[in-house]
């Protein structure tokens, strides 16, 4: 029998940290990372170990959010308000599912819609329905002129308005596979309402993705709010799952824990 790890086993599997860091000290001379947790327990580990990378990544996510790291990127010329890691991870899922239709709530400058549409362009199939309560004139103009617009339908209305859901339903043909990405208003109540409204559109084996659950970890970061401890998309996902056993969290896409989308990927069984 061949010895050694199989390729898949060699990938890092970190998942988000559950313990809230109290204090982290990196000693580059002794190459040791010391972690002290809120409950007083301590841990030390080699600085360049996988465990230390996991700890540093958790802090890096919080630090990056405070520095607006995710506001620094564009896709095919359109600003995309995402961490590149999350885009690569969702690409893995889109590549596997290859849905006929991807519905996204939250357009902003259009970068995410263009990103999904560009994957569909490469596959030669698939289209995007992008919904935003307000599509600013300059963003609409740039999107209308974009080469990927041929695969994008824009809807300007609240994602939870009954007319919006009816319009989306009308744009999906019988037998088409559907994936949904929720990236609009990130309150627990709004995301839960979106999950209730859009999950029925998701086809078996496909996903509804509730982004930005990392708000739960940002309560102590400048710009974060204490109420985010309970008012966030991750909580909405768990509220939703309590009443819907037809969906389950797929932890695989965010296995590294280096994500703003913890517990985001809900797969329809
Ligand atoms: C985080 S941004 C979307 C970022 C975009 N998906 C990207 O990756 O670049 C959130 C967007 O949600 C929109 N929004 C807020 N409330 C909404 C609602 N009730 N329905 C639809 N869109 C909403 C905002 O106007 C804003 O453009």
Describe the structure in your own words.
This protein is of the alpha/beta class and 269 residues long. It folds into 2 domains: 58 residues, no CATH class; 195 residues, Rossmann fold. The chain is built from 7 helices and 12 strands. It has a 7-stranded mixed beta sheet with strand order 8-7-6-9-10-12-11, sandwiched between helices. A 3-stranded antiparallel beta sheet has the order 1-2-3, with helices on one face. A two-stranded antiparallel sheet has the order 4-5. It is globular. The N terminus is likely disordered. The structure holds S-adenosylmethionine. The site of S-adenosylmethionine (SAM) has 20 residues, from helix 3 and strand 7.
Work out the helix count.
7
What is the CATH-assigned architecture of the largest domain? 3-Layer(aba) Sandwich
**Structural classification:** alpha/beta
Number of domains: 2
Number of strands: 12
Please bin the fraction of helical residues: 25-40%
Question: In the CATH hierarchy, what is the superfamily of the largest domain?
Answer: Vaccinia Virus protein VP39
The top level CATH class name of the largest domain: Alpha Beta
> According to CATH, what is the topology of the largest domain?
Rossmann fold
Query: What is the terminal separation in angstroms?
Result: 35 Å
């Amino acid at each position: 029998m061949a010895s050694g790890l199989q390729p898949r086993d060699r990938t890092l599997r970190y998942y988000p940290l559950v313990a809230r860091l109290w204090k982290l000290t990196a000693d580059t001379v002794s190459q040791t990372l010391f972690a002290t947790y809120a409950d007083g327990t301590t841990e030390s580990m080699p600085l360049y170990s996988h465990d230390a990378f996991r700890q540093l990544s958790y802090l890096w996510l919080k630090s990056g959010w405070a520095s607006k790291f995710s506001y620094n990127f564009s896709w095919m010329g359109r600003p995309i308000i995402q961490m590149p890691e999350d885009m690569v991870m969702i690409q893995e899922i889109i590549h596997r599912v290859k849905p006929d239709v991807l519905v996204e709530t939250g357009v902003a400058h259009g970068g995410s819609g263009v990103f999904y549409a560009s994957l569909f362009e490469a596959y030669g199939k698939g289209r995007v329905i992008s919904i935003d309560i307000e599509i600013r004139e300059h963003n609409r103009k740039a999107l209308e002129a974009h080469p990927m617009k041929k695969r994008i339908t824009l809807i300007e209305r609240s994602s939870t308005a009954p007319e919006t859901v009816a319009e989306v339903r009308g744009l999906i043909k019988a037998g088409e596979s559907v994936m949904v990405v929720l990236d609009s208003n990130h309150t627990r109540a709004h995301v839960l309402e979106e999950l209730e409204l859009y999950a029925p559109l998701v086809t078996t084996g496909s996903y509804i993705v509730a982004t930005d659950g990392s708000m739960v970890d940002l309560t102590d970061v400048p710009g974060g709010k204490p109420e985010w401890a309970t008012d966030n998309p991750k909580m909405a996902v768990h509220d939703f799952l309590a009443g819907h056993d037809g969906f389950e969290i797929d932890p695989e896409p965010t296995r590294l824990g280096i994500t703003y989308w913890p517990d985001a990927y809900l797969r329809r069984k």
